[in-house]
Amino acid sequence: MGTLDGQVVVFTGAGAGIGRSVVTRFVGEGAKVVAVDISEHVTELADELGHAVLPIVADIATWGGNVVAAQAALDTWGTIDVFVGNAGITDGARPLEDIPGDRLPEAFDQLFGVNVLAPMLGVRACIDALIESHGSIILTGSFASTQAGGGGALYTASKHAVHGLVRQLAFELAPDVRVNGVAPGVAPTRLRGIDALGQTSADSVLDGTERALPTQQIAPVSAYDGVFTMLASRADSAAMTGSMVTVDSGLSIRGIGKPGGRVDIG
């Protein structure tokens, strides 16, 4: 018997990285998942995980893409218990002064469209079903949701906005729907960049990053599975709403001189 037995989840950003790993864990815990991504790779989940996953290729920065995902869950399984807004793109840590002014509006619209508007659209598309099921919402934030230096001005502003969205939605939807977030630090994934700035997908982990972390290691994407599972569980997080759970390998407690008190930096 799994922690999420009988729950139906709409999960965006499910095609790779943390999202793909968490979807696999959710299915292992008994959930049924509508797995949404803009990439065709999301369709592979049906081959890997069977009928417990319904993959959908859609642009979740559009209202239509989110309606299709929500309706698929309702048509297939009759309910929505959890919405996970996990899709995100990066600005490649581009400083504001390095972004040409005439490109800034388009870059802003693209990044905020995925990182902020998309989870709002997803929640709105699922909201009636979530209220009926007394379900929960999980949004993926970042170390950059509360700290500077985790991205450029666009990315950091967008992830601060996600933190605010978690808190505001938790207020608006109480007591019927719990709303929480997960704030990863450094994860071994590839993130899509901003087309308007000529950016493509890039690795999130740079050489030597582990030496800057208090844990002194890059955690695998599966290290985040348990936090998402806890927040989706009706039993394990029943008293949690409005929380952003930090899972950042200790980045937020990093010291000035060295990352950790017992770390030998030679």
TrEMBL record:
Keyword NADP: no
SUPFAM superfamilies linked: NAD(P)-binding Rossmann-fold domains
Keywords assigned: Oxidoreductase
Organism: Rhodococcus artemisiae
Pfam families noted in UniProt: adh_short
PROSITE patterns from the UniProt entry: ADH_SHORT (PS00061)
Protein name: SDR family oxidoreductase
Membership in a protein family: Belongs to the short-chain dehydrogenases/reductases (SDR) family.
